[in-house]
Structures are given as structure tokens and as C-alpha cells.
Amino acid sequence: MLLPRPFIALLCAISLMAFTAASTSYAQQAVALPVDEASQNPAFFAFRERLIAMVEAKDVEGIVANSCSDINLSFGGAGGHDDLRDFLNVPESLFSAEYKHLAPKQRAENWANLLKVLTLGGQFDAEGGFWAPYTWTAKVPDSFDPYSTYFITGEDVLMRDAPSKDGTAIDSLSYNIVTVPWLSEEQNGEAAVYLPVERPGGTIGYVHRDFLRSQIDYRANFNKHEGGEWKMCLFLAGD
């Protein structure tokens, strides 16, 4: 049976509206563009530049001096300048005898995490404090589980069909919000650096972990103190 042309036109209009709404919703839910508001406050911007230089120079005491005396470093109570020194120095005394060899690796990871947080942008909050990186301040739909939600932190990042640089590229991602459906501590070699990624809609592939950041990864908070001095007052990961 042939439908009247006005009815067909109405159906087409409804379909177009539904497609447009779905596309807009998908884009809103699936993308978190990088943001950096630091330059809006020249004093904070200069402070952050100095702090980045200190991290690059591994200047422990410089970083301690530019941090709050009660800096929060964990949900378990760790904090303060002495704990910050331990976090940056990672002395072998923190490990039992069988794990002392892990101290240098942990030290390198801690410095790398701090530098990453300082160089991935961020935003000011309503009280005038600054939160970094931008992935921590991004708006993520409630339907995403924080423990499995990751951000693509680059443009035109390849998603491959296998956990290897030799895998066939099946998609290109730019600042998408994605899900990592599983992680394996037993992965070795290339498989350890290519994580499984699922986009809204069900497409699964693999992305190099250098372009992935967990929603609950390390973040930092900075506040202005008496005399107008900025200080780092929080640096932790988890939820």
C-alpha cells in the first residue's frame, strides 16, 4: 500500500530529528575536549610553570616548599610534607626486603604521574581553586562507571583489532570517552601497553595506553594562600 506523500514527509522529518538528537547525545556523552584555564590567572600560570620546571629537575624540596603543609596524598590518611618527600624519593625502606628492587620503578612512575597531571590542563572551581588535569573536571554521564571509564587524550588515535602495533586500524578516536571492559595484570610485552577499549555502541578494539587516562587517575588541587601564594594541596588517585 502506498503511503500519502505528506505522511512519508512526516516520517522522514521524524527520522531525521531522531537521528540528529541521537547524534548530538552521542557526541555529548562520548567526547571530552581538553581544557586549560590556567592562563586566566597569570599568577597561577606562572606558579604552574615553575612547578613543572621543578618536576623536570626532580627538585623534591622545591615541590615540598610549594605544597600545603597538610597536602592530601591518599584516602588512607597519608599526607603532609614528610609523606610527600617519601612519595617523590621512594626510599627502599618503604618496601619489604623482597620488594626493595621495585623502588626505582615506583619512583619513576610517581614523577611521571605528577608531570602528566601538571601538563594536561585543568579548570578553576567556584572557590577559585584549580583542578588538574582536564579529565578530572570533564562532565561524564552517570551511565559511565568511573572504574572502567577512560579518556582518549589525543587526536586521531588509532583503535586496532589486536593488542599490537601490527593490528589493523579499525577506527580513529579524538578525545573520546570510552570504557576499558577488562584489565589483565598478566599481560606482557605489547599486550601490556594496548588496552581493550569499548566505545558507546559496542565497538571494541585496542588503544595504546599512552593515549588513555582513567577517570580516577591522579589529580591535583591548587589553592591560593595568605600573601597570594599558590600551593599544591592535593595529589592523589582513586575514588
Q: Explain this structure to me?
A:
By secondary structure, the chain is of the alpha+beta class. The protein folds into 2 domains: 38-138 and 217-236, Nuclear Transport Factor 2, Chain: A (Roll); 149-214, SH3 Domains (SH3 type barrels, Roll), CATH 2.30.30. It is built from 6 helices and 12 strands. The chain has helices at 5-30, 42-56, 60-65, 81-89, 103-118, 134-137, and strands at 67-72, 123-124, 130-132, 149-152, 157-160, 169-173, 177-179, 194-198, 204-208, 212-214, 219-224, 230-236. The chain has a 5-stranded mixed sheet with strand order 1-12-11-3-2. β8 and β9 form a beta hairpin. α2 runs antiparallel to α5. The chain is globular. It starts with a helix and ends with a strand.
